[in-house]
Structure prediction request, 230 residues.
Amino acid sequence: MVELKNVCVTYESTGVEALSDFSLKVEDGEFAFVIGRSGAGKSTLIKLLLKELDANRGEVYVNGYDLVKMKKHKVPEFRRTIGVVFQDYRLIDTMTVYENIAFVLRVIDAPMKQIKKRVPYVMSLVGLQDKADCYPSELSGGEQQRCALARALVNDPALLIADEPTGNVDPELAYELVELLKGINDCGTTVLMVTHAHEMVRHFGGRIINISEGEVVFDEVIGGAEIEAQ
Ligand code: ADP
Prediction:
Protein backbone atom coordinates (compact mmCIF):
# COMPACT_ATOMS: atom_id res chain seq x y z
CA MET A 1 0.00 0.00 0.00
CA VAL A 2 1.15 3.50 -0.82
CA GLU A 3 -0.21 6.58 0.88
CA LEU A 4 1.10 10.11 0.57
CA LYS A 5 -0.57 12.93 2.47
CA ASN A 6 0.13 16.57 1.59
CA VAL A 7 3.71 15.86 0.64
CA CYS A 8 6.10 18.60 -0.43
CA VAL A 9 9.54 17.89 -1.85
CA THR A 10 11.85 20.79 -2.64
CA TYR A 11 15.31 20.38 -4.15
CA GLU A 12 17.52 22.65 -2.11
CA SER A 13 20.07 23.26 -4.86
CA THR A 14 17.54 24.86 -7.19
CA GLY A 15 14.65 25.65 -4.87
CA VAL A 16 12.35 23.74 -7.24
CA GLU A 17 9.28 22.30 -5.51
CA ALA A 18 9.08 18.96 -7.36
CA LEU A 19 6.03 17.74 -5.43
CA SER A 20 3.59 20.25 -3.97
CA ASP A 21 0.92 19.28 -1.45
CA PHE A 22 0.88 15.88 -3.13
CA SER A 23 -1.60 13.28 -1.92
CA LEU A 24 -2.12 9.81 -3.33
CA LYS A 25 -3.39 6.45 -2.14
CA VAL A 26 -2.78 3.16 -3.92
CA GLU A 27 -4.32 0.14 -2.25
CA ASP A 28 -2.74 -3.30 -2.01
CA GLY A 29 -3.28 -5.26 -5.20
CA GLU A 30 -3.95 -2.24 -7.43
CA PHE A 31 -2.39 -1.58 -10.83
CA ALA A 32 -1.88 2.06 -11.72
CA PHE A 33 -0.17 3.93 -14.52
CA VAL A 34 1.62 7.13 -13.53
CA ILE A 35 1.90 9.52 -16.45
CA GLY A 36 3.06 13.08 -16.92
CA ARG A 37 5.39 15.23 -19.00
CA SER A 38 9.10 15.42 -18.43
CA GLY A 39 9.76 17.44 -15.28
CA ALA A 40 6.31 16.70 -13.85
CA GLY A 41 7.71 15.01 -10.74
CA LYS A 42 7.50 11.28 -11.60
CA SER A 43 11.12 10.45 -10.77
CA THR A 44 10.88 12.45 -7.57
CA LEU A 45 7.82 10.40 -6.62
CA ILE A 46 9.71 7.14 -7.23
CA LYS A 47 12.71 8.33 -5.21
CA LEU A 48 10.38 9.32 -2.39
CA LEU A 49 8.70 5.88 -2.41
CA LEU A 50 12.11 4.19 -2.26
CA LYS A 51 13.26 6.56 0.49
CA GLU A 52 16.08 7.78 -1.70
CA LEU A 53 14.97 11.24 -0.73
CA ASP A 54 12.86 12.67 2.07
CA ALA A 55 9.76 14.83 2.04
CA ASN A 56 10.13 18.35 3.43
CA ARG A 57 6.57 18.14 4.63
CA GLY A 58 3.72 15.62 4.76
CA GLU A 59 3.29 11.91 5.45
CA VAL A 60 4.56 8.97 3.41
CA TYR A 61 3.52 5.35 4.04
CA VAL A 62 4.67 2.44 1.90
CA ASN A 63 3.96 -1.24 2.58
CA GLY A 64 3.11 -0.52 6.20
CA TYR A 65 6.26 1.56 6.86
CA ASP A 66 6.14 5.20 7.91
CA LEU A 67 8.93 6.65 5.76
CA VAL A 68 9.06 9.98 7.55
CA LYS A 69 9.70 8.41 10.95
CA MET A 70 11.85 5.57 9.63
CA LYS A 71 15.30 5.17 11.19
CA LYS A 72 18.23 4.73 8.81
CA HIS A 73 18.94 1.15 9.86
CA LYS A 74 15.41 0.10 8.82
CA VAL A 75 15.79 1.35 5.24
CA PRO A 76 17.33 -1.84 3.72
CA GLU A 77 14.60 -4.00 5.29
CA PHE A 78 11.95 -1.62 3.94
CA ARG A 79 13.46 -1.55 0.43
CA ARG A 80 13.26 -5.32 0.23
CA THR A 81 9.46 -4.99 0.16
CA ILE A 82 9.72 -3.17 -3.19
CA GLY A 83 10.87 -4.41 -6.58
CA VAL A 84 12.02 -1.84 -9.12
CA VAL A 85 12.49 -2.17 -12.87
CA PHE A 86 14.70 0.73 -13.88
CA GLN A 87 14.51 2.41 -17.25
CA ASP A 88 18.06 1.32 -18.15
CA TYR A 89 17.60 -2.19 -16.61
CA ARG A 90 20.90 -1.98 -14.65
CA LEU A 91 21.86 -5.60 -15.32
CA ILE A 92 25.40 -6.66 -14.44
CA ASP A 93 27.23 -7.39 -17.72
CA THR A 94 29.61 -9.97 -16.25
CA MET A 95 26.84 -12.08 -14.77
CA THR A 96 24.49 -14.48 -16.56
CA VAL A 97 20.72 -14.10 -16.41
CA TYR A 98 20.60 -16.63 -13.55
CA GLU A 99 23.38 -14.87 -11.65
CA ASN A 100 21.87 -11.42 -12.14
CA ILE A 101 18.63 -12.60 -10.58
CA ALA A 102 20.21 -14.74 -7.87
CA PHE A 103 22.48 -11.86 -6.86
CA VAL A 104 19.52 -10.03 -5.28
CA LEU A 105 18.97 -12.97 -2.92
CA ARG A 106 22.68 -13.54 -2.30
CA VAL A 107 23.23 -10.03 -0.97
CA ILE A 108 20.56 -10.59 1.66
CA ASP A 109 22.08 -13.97 2.59
CA ALA A 110 19.05 -15.95 1.46
CA PRO A 111 19.49 -19.71 1.94
CA MET A 112 20.81 -21.58 -1.13
CA LYS A 113 17.68 -23.74 -1.10
CA GLN A 114 15.50 -20.65 -1.55
CA ILE A 115 17.73 -19.29 -4.33
CA LYS A 116 17.60 -22.60 -6.23
CA LYS A 117 13.82 -22.64 -6.04
CA ARG A 118 12.97 -19.00 -6.53
CA VAL A 119 15.31 -18.01 -9.40
CA PRO A 120 14.08 -20.67 -11.88
CA TYR A 121 10.51 -19.81 -10.88
CA VAL A 122 10.81 -16.11 -11.72
CA MET A 123 12.76 -16.90 -14.90
CA SER A 124 9.85 -19.04 -16.09
CA LEU A 125 7.37 -16.36 -15.01
CA VAL A 126 8.95 -13.95 -17.52
CA GLY A 127 9.72 -16.64 -20.14
CA LEU A 128 13.50 -16.64 -19.73
CA GLN A 129 13.99 -20.22 -18.53
CA ASP A 130 16.00 -21.09 -21.66
CA LYS A 131 18.30 -18.08 -21.28
CA ALA A 132 19.63 -18.80 -17.79
CA ASP A 133 23.25 -19.05 -18.92
CA CYS A 134 23.21 -16.08 -21.30
CA TYR A 135 24.95 -12.81 -20.51
CA PRO A 136 23.00 -9.54 -20.93
CA SER A 137 24.91 -8.76 -24.15
CA GLU A 138 23.53 -12.00 -25.62
CA LEU A 139 19.92 -10.96 -24.97
CA SER A 140 17.53 -8.90 -27.07
CA GLY A 141 16.18 -5.65 -25.64
CA GLY A 142 12.93 -7.33 -24.66
CA GLU A 143 14.78 -10.19 -22.96
CA GLN A 144 16.97 -7.78 -21.01
CA GLN A 145 13.83 -6.04 -19.89
CA ARG A 146 12.28 -9.31 -18.76
CA CYS A 147 15.48 -10.20 -16.93
CA ALA A 148 15.25 -6.88 -15.08
CA LEU A 149 11.64 -7.69 -14.26
CA ALA A 150 12.55 -11.17 -12.96
CA ARG A 151 15.22 -9.60 -10.78
CA ALA A 152 12.70 -7.13 -9.39
CA LEU A 153 10.32 -9.98 -8.57
CA VAL A 154 12.70 -12.52 -7.10
CA ASN A 155 12.29 -11.21 -3.58
CA ASP A 156 8.49 -11.45 -3.86
CA PRO A 157 7.90 -7.71 -3.29
CA ALA A 158 4.54 -6.37 -2.17
CA LEU A 159 5.00 -3.40 -4.52
CA LEU A 160 6.53 -3.38 -7.98
CA ILE A 161 7.59 -0.05 -9.46
CA ALA A 162 8.35 -0.01 -13.17
CA ASP A 163 10.08 3.21 -14.17
CA GLU A 164 9.49 3.92 -17.85
CA PRO A 165 10.27 0.27 -18.65
CA THR A 166 8.95 0.52 -22.19
CA GLY A 167 11.15 3.48 -23.14
CA ASN A 168 13.80 1.47 -24.99
CA VAL A 169 11.80 -1.28 -26.71
CA ASP A 170 9.48 -1.64 -29.69
CA PRO A 171 5.83 -0.74 -29.09
CA GLU A 172 4.90 -4.40 -29.53
CA LEU A 173 7.25 -5.46 -26.74
CA ALA A 174 5.99 -2.64 -24.57
CA TYR A 175 2.47 -4.06 -24.83
CA GLU A 176 3.79 -7.52 -23.97
CA LEU A 177 5.52 -6.15 -20.92
CA VAL A 178 2.32 -4.52 -19.66
CA GLU A 179 0.51 -7.85 -20.18
CA LEU A 180 3.22 -9.49 -18.11
CA LEU A 181 2.89 -6.85 -15.39
CA LYS A 182 -0.88 -7.31 -15.40
CA GLY A 183 -0.38 -11.06 -14.85
CA ILE A 184 1.95 -10.34 -11.94
CA ASN A 185 -0.63 -7.92 -10.56
CA ASP A 186 -3.31 -10.63 -10.85
CA CYS A 187 -1.19 -12.71 -8.48
CA GLY A 188 -1.46 -9.98 -5.82
CA THR A 189 1.53 -7.67 -6.35
CA THR A 190 0.70 -3.97 -6.38
CA VAL A 191 2.08 -2.42 -9.57
CA LEU A 192 2.93 1.21 -10.28
CA MET A 193 4.05 1.77 -13.82
CA VAL A 194 5.53 5.13 -14.76
CA THR A 195 5.35 5.77 -18.47
CA HIS A 196 5.36 8.32 -21.25
CA ALA A 197 3.48 5.98 -23.57
CA HIS A 198 0.06 7.60 -23.35
CA GLU A 199 -1.28 5.69 -26.33
CA MET A 200 -0.53 2.41 -24.60
CA VAL A 201 -2.09 3.60 -21.36
CA ARG A 202 -5.28 4.47 -23.24
CA HIS A 203 -5.22 1.02 -24.86
CA PHE A 204 -5.07 -0.82 -21.55
CA GLY A 205 -7.11 1.57 -19.44
CA GLY A 206 -7.34 1.11 -15.68
CA ARG A 207 -6.27 3.59 -13.04
CA ILE A 208 -4.36 6.49 -14.48
CA ILE A 209 -2.61 9.03 -12.30
CA ASN A 210 -1.50 12.08 -14.25
CA ILE A 211 1.06 14.33 -12.62
CA SER A 212 1.77 17.88 -13.73
CA GLU A 213 4.06 20.39 -12.04
CA GLY A 214 4.28 18.30 -8.89
CA GLU A 215 0.56 17.80 -8.47
CA VAL A 216 -1.95 15.09 -9.29
CA VAL A 217 -4.13 16.64 -11.99
CA PHE A 218 -6.05 13.50 -12.93
CA ASP A 219 -6.64 10.27 -11.05
CA GLU A 220 -9.36 8.07 -12.46
CA VAL A 221 -10.11 4.60 -13.70
CA ILE A 222 -10.82 4.63 -17.42
CA GLY A 223 -11.94 1.90 -19.78
CA GLY A 224 -9.30 0.65 -22.21
CA ALA A 225 -9.60 0.58 -26.02
CA GLU A 226 -10.67 -3.05 -25.88
CA ILE A 227 -13.51 -2.18 -23.52
CA GLU A 228 -14.58 0.82 -25.63
CA ALA A 229 -14.60 -1.31 -28.76
CA GLN A 230 -17.12 -3.75 -27.33
P1 ADP B 1 10.01 13.70 -14.18
O1 ADP B 1 10.55 12.41 -13.66
O2 ADP B 1 8.51 13.69 -14.26
O3 ADP B 1 10.64 14.08 -15.48
P2 ADP B 1 11.44 14.93 -11.96
O4 ADP B 1 10.87 14.36 -10.72
O5 ADP B 1 12.75 14.40 -12.43
O6 ADP B 1 10.35 14.86 -13.15
O7 ADP B 1 11.62 16.50 -11.78
C1 ADP B 1 10.64 17.35 -11.18
C2 ADP B 1 11.22 18.75 -11.04
O8 ADP B 1 12.32 18.72 -10.11
C3 ADP B 1 11.81 19.31 -12.33
O9 ADP B 1 11.54 20.69 -12.35
C4 ADP B 1 13.28 19.05 -12.21
O10 ADP B 1 14.03 19.99 -12.92
C5 ADP B 1 13.53 19.16 -10.71
N1 ADP B 1 14.60 18.27 -10.24
C6 ADP B 1 14.65 16.93 -10.40
N2 ADP B 1 15.76 16.41 -9.82
C7 ADP B 1 16.44 17.46 -9.31
C8 ADP B 1 17.68 17.59 -8.58
N3 ADP B 1 18.42 16.52 -8.27
N4 ADP B 1 18.06 18.82 -8.21
C9 ADP B 1 17.32 19.89 -8.50
N5 ADP B 1 16.15 19.86 -9.16
C10 ADP B 1 15.71 18.66 -9.58
In short: The chain has a mean pLDDT of 93. The CA atoms of residues 10 and 135 lie 40 Å apart. Residues 11, 13-14, 16, 18, 36, 38-44 surround adenosine-5'-diphosphate (CB under 6 Å). Strands lie at 2-11, 16-26, 31-35, 57-62, 65-66, 82-85, 159-163, 190-194, 206-212, 215-222.
